[in-house]
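Try this one yourself first.
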């Protein structure tokens, strides 16, 4: 373990991916179980995501799932990666996080994103359109105002006066918004290194201290797969790469399939191109290989924290990957029974 890795926090973002042969409820239960497992390994945070109308993702209500995760754990920080603010009224988001923080004081994070619904049908069902993302800065200001008690007409209960750390999930323009608001930035993915570094540089250059953060705080997010061999680690990436390739060529995002079935597929040229593209640049390998790769990413970006977003069909292999990564990061295992 190198000094630069030892001084970096490591956290987990789980997207409640469904697997072939399993329904959404099982994926949600798997997310809660994974939170318990990574808490025991010593990870700093466990975040859940927001997706609507996606067949391969069960996580559609992140604050509800975050409540279940927080209730099933005792020490790890719990939050969202993220709540897509343009999909919601800021008052409702403030109230939800106010309730979470009231129930689990000192453990809740409020990760916020700029995306709107994935399809026209989902956006209509949410009562939103693409233009709603354009006022993210205003929505963010309104949301934070409810916690600060500065809204001129409305008091958000029980949010007002509570301190729920906000994070902005963004690249490009969003990095400037995070800097102007003086909030921590979550940027990814690790494959788009140049774009990531541009976003981080802009964020640090434009950052203005706020009551939420006195100085810049950068979280880099992406896939990290660790196994006994480079080939085994690469196999962990196959299910997600195929789901992404299928979604780009067929218009729907399917559940995760076993790696063996994917390896046996006869893909079209377009599918193969997208599939191979999804595998390129992913951070994977043995513990030594991943240590070197992580060290390079952290040094280049100056990241304060790494948020790991790995998904795979094989839950046992995924758990082993997180155990190996915890060893790389020098995390201290937690006796959650004692903590409870």
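Now uncover the answer:
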């Amino acid at each position: 373990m190198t000094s630069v890795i030892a001084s970096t926090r490591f956290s987990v973002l789980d997207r409640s991916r469904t697997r072939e042969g399993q329904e959404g409820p099982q994926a949600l239960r798997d997310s809660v179980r994974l939170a318990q497992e990574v808490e025991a390994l010593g990870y700093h945070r466990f975040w859940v995501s927001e997706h609507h109308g996606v067949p391969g993702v069960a996580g559609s209500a992140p604050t509800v799932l975050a409540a279940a995760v927080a209730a099933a754990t005792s020490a790890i920080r719990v939050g969202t990666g993220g709540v897509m603010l343009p999909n919601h009224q800021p008052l409702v988001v403030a109230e939800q996080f106010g309730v979470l923080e009231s129930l689990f004081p000192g453990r809740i994070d409020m990760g916020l994103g700029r995306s709107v619904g994935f399809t026209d049908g989902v956006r209509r069902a949410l009562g939103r359109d693409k233009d709603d993302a354009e006022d993210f800065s205003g929505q963010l200001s309104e949301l934070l105002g409810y916690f600060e008690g500065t809204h001129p007409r409305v008091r958000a209960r029980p949010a007002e006066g509570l301190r729920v750390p906000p994070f902005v999930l963004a690249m490009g323009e969003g990095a400037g918004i995070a800097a102007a608001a003086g909030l921590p930035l979550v940027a990814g993915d690790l494959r788009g290194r140049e774009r990531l570094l541009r976003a981080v540089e802009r964020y640090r250059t434009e950052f203005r201290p706020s009551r939420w953060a006195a100085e810049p705080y950068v979280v880099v997010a992406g896939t990290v797969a660790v196994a006994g061999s480079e080939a085994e680690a690469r196999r962990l990436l196959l299910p997600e790469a195929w789901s992404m390739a299928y979604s780009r060529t067929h218009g729907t995002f399917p559940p995760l399939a076993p790696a063996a079935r994917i390896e046996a597929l006869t893909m079209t040229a377009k599918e193969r191109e997208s599939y191979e593209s999804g595998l390129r640049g992913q951070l994977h390998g043995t513990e030594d290989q991943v240590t070197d790769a992580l060290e390079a990413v952290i040094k280049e970006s100056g990241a304060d924290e790494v948020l790991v977003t790995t998904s795979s069909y094989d839950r046992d292999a995924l758990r082993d990957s997180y155990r190996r990564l915890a060893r790389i990061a020098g995390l201290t295992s937690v006796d959650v029974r004692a903590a409870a």
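Discussion: Confidence is low (pLDDT under 50) at residues 336-340. The first helix runs from residue 3 to 6.
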